[in-house]
Every structure is written in C-alpha cells, then in structure tokens.
Specification:
The chain has 148 residues and is of the alpha/beta class. The protein is built from 6 helices and 5 strands, in the order βααβααβααββ.
C-alpha cells in the first residue's frame, strides 16, 4: 500500500469536470485506490482549494456549498486530512532554513513539512517548481510512465 499526498492543484483538477485531464486524473485516483493506495490531503490544501474554486475571478466559479460538498465527498471516499502535530514546527523550521524560500515556496515548504511529519514520501502535484525535499518525491500523476 502506498500513501500519497494530494497538492491543491491536483484537488482542483480532480474537482473540475470540464476537461479530459480531469477525467483521466479521477480515473487514476480511483484505479490507485482500488489497488490499495491511500490519499492524504494536507489541511492547508483544503483552504487553498476552496479559495481557488470559489474565487470570483475563477474561470468556472462554484458556490461555497458545492466546494463544501466536494471536500466532504472526497473524504467519505477514503481520502483523509493530515494536520500539523508536535514535530511540525521543527520540521518546517529545518526546511525553511535549508531552502530560504520566498513567495509561494513558503507554502510548498509547509506542505512538505506536513507530509514529512506524517511519513508521506510522495506528493502528486502539477507544480513543476514544487520545493525540493530530500524525503518527499513530487510527481505529476498524469505523466507517470506506468499511468500512476
């Protein structure tokens, strides 16, 4: 069984049902779940997901009620939230000191530290510039050679 974290951009793509890539991603998530993979959602990504899909500037804006229902659906289908614990600040501090990120890199460090704290070694993301972390592999799930 593998434990995989889902970045915000993966949540958004899986939520949107207006393109083939979203269809492929949902099929991949279902396939991997049927083969024993578990999906962790960093708690920070829920808020960012909500912000993106409900923003008035979003290409396809949805109501907060629909965003709420989708997060509930995701969690009832087996994904689970991960939140900071007692080692979080120590892990984040170490990562920030090593990378000295600016801008959105700080948010990536928060996610990487959270994954590290929970023993997660892989995060699915479409962010090619996702912060490098020695114990976390950033993977674009739609370009994996074996299809995820």
């Amino acid at each position: 069984m593998s434990l995989i974290a889902l970045d915000t951009n993966v949540l958004v793509k899986a939520f949107r049902d207006d393109d083939a890539a979203g269809d492929a991603l949902r099929a991949l998530l279902a396939h991997r779940a049927s083969r024993g993979s578990s999906f962790a959602v960093p708690v920070f990504c829920v808020g960012e997901f909500w912000k993106i899909v409900t923003d008035r500037r979003a290409p396809i804006r949805v109501s907060p009620t629909k965003a709420f229902a989708w997060v509930d659906h995701l969690l009832t289908e087996g994904a689970f939230l991960i939140a900071p614990g007692s080692r979080y600040w120590q892990t984040l501090r170490s990562l920030l000191a090593a990378r000295l990120p600016a801008g959105t890199g700080v948010f990536d460090c928060e996610i990487a530290a959270l994954c590290s704290e929970h023993g997660i070694r892989e995060i699915w993301t479409f962010d090619r510039a996702f912060v490098k972390h020695p114990q976390l592999r950033a993977v674009d799930p739609l370009t994996r050679p074996e299809g995820g």
